[in-house]
Amino acid sequence: MKTWFQRLKDETACIFERDPAAQSLFEVVTTYPGLHAVLIHRVSHALWRRGCHWSARFLAFASRWWTGIEIHPGAQIGRRFFIDHGMGVVIGETAVIGDDCTLYHGVTLGGTSWRKGKRHPTVGNGVVIGAGAKVLGPISVGDGARIGSNSVVIKDVPAGATMVGIPAHAVNKDSSADQARRQAFAERIGFDAYGTTSDMADPIARAMHQMLDHIHAQDRQLACMRKALRALGAHMDVGPLPELKDCGLDEDEDKVD
Asked: Which one is predicted more confidently, 257 or 72?
């Protein structure tokens, strides 16, 4: 069993991983409403499970007043859950959220029925739900799925899928090899799509992907040219380049076919 300190450390560590604006632990603990809402929910959910329903609901009500985030104490939330910004987030009573999930502001995990029982979504591990998205009904969202901003999801989402639109639909994916290569090269130059994946149907994202492909091709062509010139006896005074991690394109041009 983890101690409360270890659990708090997990809750804060995931924020530094997913929010580049986080500057210090003190700042995160004192000024992040998403963290406050999650920590208060941990307490209210424990009360709810022990049958202290009024106390749990009152604590959740106080949390909504304080943070602008409404989480029913009956909702089940996994570890390292991060709500970025958070204002307007609503999570219903029978919602189930896995580990390492991220929600942005304005997200609703809501129901579509007034009947008792399971009526809210079940969200798998590692899911990212963009700002303003609505995930409605007793549906399942598979592990690693991405829900685009302002999408309305009313059907099950396969693992790893990216959903966009109203009603949401899965967008076409690139081949896994292309996706892996782009991601590796993007990490080398410090680019990471904010809350999106490479298959997000967005013109700017597509333009970035084309630019990454173009830069990658140029690097290989330049490496081949340098190799050919060296073979002819040419000596080039080439300045140092920023060091990049290896992702299939070696700094040593002799390894280029």
From this structure: 72
The DSSP call for residue 98 is: -
92-140, pLDDT tens digit by residue?
A: 999 999 999 999 999 999 998 888 889 999 999 999 999 999 999 999 9
Assess contact for 91 and 110: CB atoms under 8 A.
Answer: no
Q: Are residues 78 and 165 in the same domain?
A: yes
**Residues sharing a CB contact under 8 Å with residue 197, sequence separation 6 or more, in sequence order:** 146, 162
Confidence of residue 57 (pLDDT cuts 50, 70, 90): very high
**Which of 99, 26, 91 lies closest to 64 in space, CA to CA?**
91
- Residue 223 DSSP one-character state: H
Considering the domain architecture, whether residues 161 and 193 belong to the same structural domain is answered as no
pLDDT tens for 4-14 read 677 777 788 88
> Which segments of 50-200 does DSSP mark as H helices, in order?
53-67, 176-189
Task: Give residue 226's domain range.
Answer: 176-255
Q: Would you call 17 helix, strand, or coil by DSSP? A: helix
pTM comes to 0.64
What letter does residue 153 receive in the DSSP assignment?
Answer: E
Cα distance between residue 80 and residue 148, in whole Å: 21
| Residue 28 DSSP class | H
- 148 and 54, same domain (yes or no): yes
Q: What is the chain's alpha carbon radius of gyration, rounded to the nearest angstrom?
A: 23
